[in-house]
Amino acid sequence: MTTIAPDARMVDAQRTYPPHAAVVSWLFFDWAAQPYFTLITTFVFAPYFATSIAPNPAAGQSLWAFAMAAAGLAIALLSPVLGAIADASGRRKPWIAGFGAVLVLASCTLWIGRPGDHAIIPLLLTAVALASVGAEFATVFNNAMMPTLVPPERIGRLSGTGWATGYVGGIVSLIIVLGLLAANPETGRTLLGLTPLFGLDPVSHQGDRIVGPLTGIWFVIFVTPLFLFTPDYPAKRPLRDALHEGLSELKRSIKGLPKQKSLAAFLLANMIYTDGLVSLFAFGGIYAAGTFGWHTIQIGTFGIMLAITGAFGAWLGGKLDDRLGPQRVIAGSLLLLLLSVAAILLVDKDSVLFVKVTPPQAGAPLFSSAAERAYLVLGCLIGAAGGPLQAASRTLLIRLAPKDRIAQYFGLFALTGKVTSFTGPLLIGMITAATASQKAGMAVLVVFFVAGLGLLMRVRD
What we know:
With 461 residues, the chain is an all-alpha fold. The protein is built from 18 helices and 3 strands. The chain has a 3-stranded antiparallel sheet, with helices on one face. Strand 2 and strand 3 (355-356) form a beta hairpin.
């Protein structure tokens, strides 16, 4: 007797999906995790480390780059293995909880980073690397829950809304830090003109250091709805059996990639352009601190503006994803990123696109120079492109990957996003160290976006 397999669309039509509260609770993971990327790796702690803890900004940029490279290598090696095990075992939430705990504990450790204390640098960089590992691994398993939450035709909107929710969470956390906690060491006042809460000392940069514990507490509070209201996959088999089966499936999947040309081309493209994007976000604040002498208030305000455009871009990108397809959204985002980065390299404190301008003056209003305003505009364009690029990338993976091995392929997705993620920071660190020029180090990012766009053209959705 011949068995006829049901059409995939019929299966999707018959599948039941969880209630709206479960979807909203899942969205809060992005809100919960975003402060790590916004406060620690981009706009507050990373620039603070480079300008106040490290011997000088160039040395700080290279040291931070080496720590991010080490974390990226660990994530690249382990994420596909863990994803394969999770597919075989069925459960997602225990992995999110375990790696979330690593993120929380490592982030809280950053409080000890006192200005000028060079002896504490190895411990701080270790903590940052561990926090990065925790955040990225938790994200792998959170992403793998997406196909069970909404029908396929709404995946793009779900992904875009998730990224937008994360950006809004980053905005709110930045406003809290800049308006209530971090003060200018010269004036002792926050961006809102207030004395820092809890008696935080501006001179010892306690307002910058508090972002570590704040990130940990924030994650615990806002990830809780996911565990309460979003259903997990049912358990399939014990961990030992899942380990054996997961590794076997991973081996078969990797061997089969050459036959899946579009999927392989996409994973390779993702590997390259994600490396460039992560490096751009990681070093944008450090670059601004070294170029314009910005401190926490200026960098944080810039971060709020960038996050607002990122939230809007991710939301709009999600709608365009469902209408035009994720590949077109990714290509458009890469073009905008490429043009913006090339323009940023032509902006210095006393010139904009080869035109001489008046450099920033001490005591002048916030972002009063033409060069600073140009950097703001270009940064906002980068934010508007970065959100839809990341959101559309995970929806394209869902379209290309086998549905019964989605966590494994999100592990491979994280692998390609991280296997060479040490390359961007490493190249930036090496070129910056060799030339003592932050601009020379950042110029390497143009190559990543050009190569990623070229490979994307070979993908057939």
